[in-house]
Amino acid sequence: MIGAAGAVAAGAALTPVVFAATDSSGTASDTAGTEPETFPATRTAAATGTGTATTAFAAAFVGVRWDGAGDGVSIRFAGGGSKAVTPGCATLEDGGRTALIAAGSAKAYELTAPDGTTGLGSLAIDTTGGPDRTFQVPKEPTRVRGVRYLSRPAWGADESKRYKNGEVNSPEKYYALQSITVHHTDTPNNDPDPAATVRAIYEYHAVTLDWGDIGYHFLIDEAGTVYEGRYSGDDGIPAFDPDGNLVTAFHTSGYNSGNLGIALLGTLVDQGPTDAAKASLTRLVKVIARFKGLDPSARITYVNPVNGVTRDVTTVSGHRDWLQTDCPGQTMYDLLDEVRARAGGK
């Protein structure tokens, strides 16, 4: 858990001491104790191809994946009109298209697609009505140097979803941090249950897209609550290993290693983040940049440590700076200079 009293020199390695849990005063707090908390188990129903699919439960989201043209796929829920399925924030290395669509508690939906579309599959997801599962949640708040966040068990991350055929589907790999990329999740605004949405994104990323885990390192909801994303080990350090290297996640296809992804819940195309969400984003970027000696506004040449591919970006960038996407939404993208300036200030 990121946080400690005092600062470290620019570029110094993060350590378990630096990344100790802290309470609001900045002193170490005991997070060894846990207490049980229940969350609904995620229920899903998969379908392939076009046509009508039904479920035995009310779905909050439908994840769709296909190959072919980026437009032309549409979805219709009972009682509503047809809606175009547009590729969302998630990007696939194989060139496939994908989107997570709010289903509004629908129990049926119909998919249509133009000729030439292949590999069409969908998954109805319910993260609120399933049977209760019990998680051991830390008794004390966990914080990112004063920014409180919810650990994976605190939002109900079912760790079994990281496994496939009895093995970890995406083994952890770690590289030095070079950049931070901001996303939006392209999910509904004014979300009444953001933790349930985080669980839906986890299911969609880990299972539907076969990434083995949620694609972001951190997520932030409209109330400013920060959620720990991608699993990084059992040492209690979110996003990083004890040596200060960043676990590779799945948020910016082809440029993931050494690139930390932060996603704001919601759709930020025509409206910006709430003040609380923007403040949490700024504080989170600030503490990570300071600990790693990064200038949020600097122009850098990112070098993928796996294959040597390079990209000229700003240290803190938007998803669209890397790939052809509207993420993190035009309004949020226009605010990035403000976030950089505030995160880089004293």
Tell me what you see in this structure:
This protein has 346 residues and is α+β, with helices and mostly antiparallel strands. It has 2 domains: 43-126, Jelly Rolls (Sandwich), CATH 2.60.120; 140-344, Lysozyme-like (3-Layer(aba) Sandwich). The chain is 14% helix and 33% strand. The strands form 6 sheets. Strands 9-10-16-15-18-14-21 form a 7-stranded mixed beta sheet. A 6-stranded antiparallel beta sheet has the order 2-7-3-6-4-5, covered by helices on one side. Strands 1-8 form a two-stranded antiparallel ribbon. A hairpin with a 2-residue loop joins strand 9 (142-144) and strand 10. Helix 2 packs across helix 4. The model is unreliable at 1-31 (pLDDT under 50).
Give the CA-CA distance, first to last residue: 22 Å
* Annotated CATH topology of the largest domain: Lysozyme-like
* Total E-strand runs: 21
What pattern of helices and strands is seen along the backbone?
Answer: EEEEEEEEEEEEEEHEEEEHEEEHH
Whole-angstrom Rg: 20 Å
Strand order of the largest sheet: 9-10-16-15-18-14-21
What would you call the structural class? alpha+beta
Major sheet attributes: 7 strands, mixed
What percentage of residues falls in helices of 4 or more residues? 10-25%
CATH superfamily of the largest domain: Peptidoglycan recognition protein-like
Strand content: 25-35%
CATH architecture of the largest domain: 3-Layer(aba) Sandwich
Helical element count?
4
